[in-house]
Write a structure and sequence with these properties.
alpha/beta
Length: 512
Amino acid sequence: MTLTKKRETRPAGKRETRTPAASWGLASRAGAPWEYAPAPEATDHIEIRPEYGLFIDNEFTPARPRKTFQVINPATEEPLAKVAHASKPDVDRAVRAARRAYQTTWSRLPGSERAKYLYRIARILQERSREFAVVETMNSGKPIKESRDVDVPLAAAHFFYYAGWADKLDYAFPGLTPRSLGVAAQVIPWNFPLLMLAWKIAPALACGNTVILKPASTTPLTAYLFADVVRQADLPPGVVNIITGPGEIGMELVRHPDVNKVAFTGSTAVGKMIARAVAGTHKKLTLELGGKAANVVFDDAPLDQAIEGIINGIYFNQGEVCCAGSRLFVQENVYEPLLDKLKARLSTLRVGDPLDKNTDVGAINSATQLAKIQELVDSGVEEGAEIFQPDCELPTRGYFFRPTLFTSVSQSHRIAQEEIFGPVLSVLTFRTPEEAVEKANNTPYGLSAGVWTEKGSRIFKMVAAMKAGVVWANTFNRFDPTSPFGGYKESGYGREGGIHGLGAYLSLDGES
């Protein structure tokens, strides 16, 4: 199934469009219209194999029985590669390999030796950063400047950071006796394929565990490229294993009796299934699930700075971010000037070829996700919200959606309650800080939030009152490997990043 003509239709109802200011970026008196020249990233240095097998014991091996599925480029709808469709026996093979590596080599290595391998991986990621960035963009649809400047550098930074902790676990948890868990099953989503891989694998290896990674079925290619890095870094066979397939293969991995740790990032619905599957077992579990983050702007906030934070909060990675600031709460007395600035800025976003270095908003990951976004946008119009979309031309092929902004949004609207996972922002208003907190917390999720104000005391008061695992102040979507990330309520539990991310992969003797 592809969505082409349907993508050009827009929901009936109130819709405002605005063409980009002719003199944007020039002196206002110049008034000379201009366009960015195409700046495509080269792909001739990239080698994508026609077919990939499962990565078990440092070898690529076909699924048993031999079965594959197609991976496509969401920006062009063209096939990229065939990938092995794992079976339950394949899951058993991967777990056995990981268990053997854990017992015979990896858990017996001193932390200083494990650190050497992690440092080596980090350096190889840096050396091959351009290759990883291009493959990530081709497979996921995200703009190359985001893959190049955010995803790949942060992935390498996580391996550097956890390499530094590998021989210092006793210092990280004083008074306790940290011990590795064993075999870790890790299931990651399609929105940040390489970064989520690093979030999972780096702390697991640093703590002495072996892993089986199951990437999303639409975005496995950087995981397979990482498998090549594993071999290049000379990791012992079985320390890192990668299996691919649909969601049920991930559940087979989660349920496997010889798995000691489960880590999952993805939807709340699947997270609940996983929690039920491991309930009553010995398995340690961390879940990083959905979100519906509130971005709160007070009347004393620096509006121009806030506009950039709002844009980054919801249109970064096409809004396919679990912590996206998809609900914007604006204090009433600055609502109109902020909205004018926001619409003007929204009209400058460039939507198109993700491999073009000028592109701000790339392709939606799949036809299924695009249809979900369109359905929720349609519901917003049907429920009475006012829609604004910049007047930009979308590519004729690929899964693209215009950056969208809704006003006149009610708390009860689906677009204010459900995670859209797309470039769609709902704008609401408030009068007092107490009202802002009440509205921001009116969601089953609790992953992240943002606050914009010049008053430090107000920041601390809001942070304490908002029910979110991470609250940014005068910025949004800022990540660092030293800082823990995670949520609560229906956004999951456990933390990734920082020392907290180590604890998720250790048994701490002496814990109360």
